[in-house]
Amino acid sequence: MKKEDIQKLISKNLEGFESNLRPLAGFKLNFSANEGFHKIFFSASCTCGTSALLSVEVSENKSDNEIEDAMTSIIERLLTQEKSFRRMNCELHESMRTGFLPDKS
Fold first, then answer.
1. How far is residue 57's CA from residue 80's CA, in Å, rounded to a whole number?
2. Of 55, 50, 39, nearest in space to 94 by CA
3. 36, 76, 43: which is closest to 57 by C-alpha?
């Protein structure tokens, strides 16, 4: 299964959950430390303007059936990442945006 097809399958499976994850595509860099894996990206946003880049990895060696069988686990991982981001307060989100630099006032 191609990376784009996996992302579509994940998006379709997210439809039954309370989630505002948006699929992201078009990254030219390989952000994965693991060779031989598809890295699938999603975005979660907060009302304060901060967005989080969330991802899951799927082995390129997995069959379509194996990917479909693992979909529950993949969805759970993404939803857990999203919940962790949403539990952070906006002050922490702002620190994430600015790189946790100390205030020099």
1. 15
2. 50
3. 36
Tokens of 83: 């919940």
CA distance 86 to 65: 32
Rounded Cα distance between 41 and 27, Å, is: 9
* Dist. CA 56–CA 38, nearest whole Å: 8
CB of 17 within 8 A of CB of 75? yes
- Indicate the residue type of 56: V
Can you give the pTM of this predicted structure? 0.81
Q: What are the pLDDT digits (tens) for 16-52?
A: 888 889 999 876 665 556 788 888 999 999 999 899 9
What is the side-by-side strand order in the sheet with 22-24? 22-24, 37-45, 51-59
Residue with tokens 């990895």: 57
